[in-house]
Amino acid sequence: MTTALPKWVILRYARLWRKFEDTSFSHEQASNFLNEPKRTTLSLIIQELKSSGWITIILDPKDARKRLYALKKPEQAINELK
User: pLDDT, tens digit, for every residue of 49-66?
Assistant: First the structure.
C-alpha cells in the first residue's frame, strides 16, 4: 500500500520516474540526476518514498554494501493509495 506524498517529494519522484522508469538505479545516479544541494536531501527523499511505499530498496548483487532503488509505477502507486 502507498500513502500520499508531500508535493516536494512527488516532484522529485516524477523527475526520477521520467529518467529511470522501470530500471533500478543507485544513490549516486539519482544524486547526479537530481543535483540536490546536499547529500542528506536525497537520503530524505528516498526515505519519504520508502516509508510511503513508492520505492523499493534492494541489495546491489555486485556489492552487498550498496543499495539499488526501484520506483513503483505511478499507476500502481495511485491505485494503492490508502
Answer: 999 999 999 999 999 999
